[in-house]
Each structure stands twice: as structure tokens, then as C-alpha cells.
Design a protein that fits this description.
The structure is a single chain. By secondary structure, the protein is an alpha/beta fold. The chain has three domains: 9-53, lambda repressor-like DNA-binding domains (434 Repressor (Amino-terminal Domain)), CATH 1.10.260.40; 66-158 and 294-324, Response regulator (Rossmann fold, 3-Layer(aba) Sandwich); 160-292, Rossmann fold (3-Layer(aba) Sandwich), CATH 3.40.50.2300. The protein is 40% helix and 15% strand. It has helices at 11-18, 22-29, 37-49, 55-63, 82-95, 129-137, 161-174, 190-209, 226-237, 251-262, 296-312, and strands at residues 68-73, 101-106, 118-122, 142-146, 155-159, 179-184, 215-216, 220-221, 245-248, 272-274, 291-292, 323-326, 330-331. Strands 2-1-3-4-5-12 form a six-stranded parallel β-sheet, with helices on both faces. Strands 6, 7, 8, 9 and 10 form a five-stranded parallel β-sheet that branches. β1, α5 and β2 (101-106) form a beta-alpha-beta unit. Residues 1-5 and 56-63 have low confidence and may be disordered.
């Protein structure tokens, strides 16, 4: 019995139906000798029952390729790193045939999803789940970057913001800071929530293990901009008990905060700061900025490699994971004393 639904059946659907890996399904359908004959027969039979047609034929004969990749951001105006865009453009140029073009969009602009051969979603918010689910239901090849999604099945690669924030804050406390503050970004973004949670976890763990408690100021919004970071730091420095360490949730805000510190007429004690993302300019601030490195280049390279396989229906390599969380190392510089 074939599947008469207008939705395309993919190798992920077949794998889910049989309870096996998508890699095994891909190998079997591409004639790989690595798959046992009995397994191959089961996969071929399931593919026939589900109405599977190889991707290049289905799209080429039924509707034609548009050779257009959709790149969707949660918000094109705020909280989006330019490195994501640059890295994705370079990887598409390097990994996909030259006749592919890139269409850059906000998730709010999704009237023509069926136009795209494949989609990359750079997700910042849980509000994006409905959009991602629509892509999955439409059987459009999709890779989700930056945030862990609960939508299944979808290839998904994200950053470990929580662990990096926790490690950075713990280091600051071990270095002797006892009066601390947080300048955070937009609460609509998952990265803000994860980084804030890591910061507070480190403080709670320190308080539980040490008799002398910390003084932690209430969080201040910095809007993910240098202007917002400068304003937030000026507000902190105006307090009689201003902090000796400020955890700042991105480098833009940290650069603004450093300006507020450097232009203050009479600081009673030094203030350490740390950023997040490791922008190129972080090396050249005064002092140079201690920050967390975001492996965006590595993550986007994997994302485009995965999308390439989904578009061509090639055999998926063993080194292409279905899910992956990227660790974020701390880059120690001058703005945070060791």
C-alpha cells in the first residue's frame, strides 16, 4: 500500500517507521555493501509502502528544483551574529553547487516555504518551534542551528551556553570577586535564558559551599547592544556598592560596558568584566576582553554539510550526527583578573 499523501516521504520517515538509523536506510537505498541483504529488503519494502521516491527524482520531476536555500533568523534586527550569516554564505559557496542561491529571511516571513529546496534555521527563541514544525510537516529538508529544538525529527546543532556561563562565573568567583552583577540580553532569546541560568547556578553553588555569601545585584537589561551595555554599566557604577565583577551576555554589551568603566571619572576599585561570543574586536578593546568563544564556523560548516546530503539524498556519512551540542571555550584576556 503506497502513501498517497502530498507530503514527501524521506529517509528519516523510513528510519522512524522501522526503528533503525537514518544512516542504515540511506546506505540500503544507495546500494551500500555495508547493509545486510535481509535489512536492505525490509528497508526497500518499507520505502515502497510509504511511497518513497528518491529526492532528486521527486523534486526534479514533480515540481522542479528552485536551487534556492532559505536562511531564516528569529530576528534580523537584534541578537543575530553577523558571523552566522558570513559563515553560512561561505559554506554554501564551498559545499553546494554554484547554481544554488541564498534567500535571507526573518521567521515571520514564511509565506513561500514550498519555494525552497532546503532551509537553514538560525533559531533564538522557543517561539520558533511552530515554524520548524511546519518545515518538518512539509517534508522540506531542514537543519536547525544555534538552539536545541524539541521538534522531531530534525537535524539540530546548538551551543552549550549554560556550561560556558557557569564556568566563566565560577572562574571569576575563584579569582576573588565577591560583589557581582549580570548584564543580560533579551529574555525572548533562549541564549539569554541559558547564559543567565549558568551564571546563577555558579553563584548558588558557591554560596552553598562557602560560609561567606556573595552580594549579587539584580540583573540589568542591556538589549544586546553596545549602547545598552554602556547604559547598564553606568547604572551599576552609580551605586555606592558597585560590583567588582560583571558577567555580560554578549561582546557588544561588554564593549559598551568597558567604555563606561574607562570614562568614569573616579572609580574606587577596579571592575572586571567578561563577554560572550569572542568577536574579532574583543582582542583590541582596552583592556582586551575575556570572553566565551562561539564555534559558529564549525557549527555552520556541519549544518551546510548535512543540508547538502539531505538535498542530494547521498549516503549520510557516519561522522554527520543527527544532534550535536558544541562546547564553548573561555578565552582569557585582560578584562577579568585570574
Amino acid at each position: 500500500m503506497t502513501n498517497n499523501s502530498s507530503k514527501r516521504t524521506t529517509i528519516i520517515d523510513i528510519a522512524s517507521h522501522l526503528g533503525i538509523s537514518h544512516t542504515t536506510v540511506s546506505r540500503a537505498l544507495n546500494g551500500s555493501p555495508k547493509v545486510k541483504e535481509t535489512t536492505r529488503r525490509k528497508i526497500v519494502e518499507a520505502a515502497h509502502q510509504l511511497g518513497y521516491v528518491p529526492n532528486q527524482n521527486a523534486r526534479g520531476l514533480n515540481q522542479g528544483r528552485t536551487y534556492t536555500i532559505g536562511l531564516f533568523f528569529t530576528d534580523l534586527q537584534n541578537g543575530t551574529s553577523g558571523l552566522f550569516l558570513t559563515s553560512i554564505i561561505l559554506n554554501i559557496r564551498e559545499q553546494l553547487p554554484e547554481n544554488y542561491v541564498l534567500s535571507i529571511n526573518s521567521i515571520n516571513d514564511h509565506d513561500r516555504l514550498s519555494f525552497f529546496d532546503g532551509v537553514v534555521v538560525v533559531s533564538q527563541s522557543v517561539k520558533d518551534e511552530e515554524f520548524i514544525n511546519n518545515l518538518v510537516q512539509m517534508k522540506i529538508p531542514v537543519v536547525v542551528l544555534n538552539r536545541k529544538t524539541q521538534i522531531q525529527p530534525v537535524y539540530n546543532y546548538w551551543l552549550d551556553n549554560y556550561s560556558a556561563a557557569r564556568e566563566m562565573t565560577t572562574h571569576a568567583l575563584q579569582a576573588g570577586h565577591r560583589n557581582v552583577a549580570l548584564i543580560r540580553g533579551s529574555l525572548d532569546y533562549a541564549s539569554t535564558q541559558e547564559r543567565s541560568q549558568g551564571y546563577f547556578a555558579a553563584i548558588q553553588e558557591w554560596d552553598a559551599a562557602h560560609p561567606t555569601k556573595l552580594f549579587a545585584h539584580p540583573p540589568i537589561e542591556g538589549e544586546y547592544t553596545a549602547k545598552g551595555g554602556c547604559r547598564a554599566m553606568e547604572e551599576l557604577l552609580a551605586r555606592p556598592n558597585f560590583p567588582d565583577y560583571v558577567f555580560i551576555e554578549n561582546d557588544d554589551m561588554a564593549i559598551g560596558a568597558l567604555r563606561a568603566i574607562n570614562t568614569h571619572p573616579n572609580l574606587k576599585h577596579p571592575v572586571s568584566v567578561s563577554g560572550f561570543d569572542d568577536m574579532d574586536i574583543a582582542t583590541y578593546t582596552s583592556p582586551s576582553l575575556t570572553t566565551v568563544h562561539s564555534p559558529i564556523t564549525e557549527m555552520t560548516a556541519l549544518g551546510i554539510a548535512t543540508l547538502k546530503h539531505l538535498l542530494t539524498n547521498d549516503e549520510l556519512d557516519d561522522d554527520i550526527p543527527f544532534k550535536k551540542c558544541f562546547k564553548m571555550p573561555i578565552i582569557y584576556r585582560e578584562s577579568l583578573r585570574k
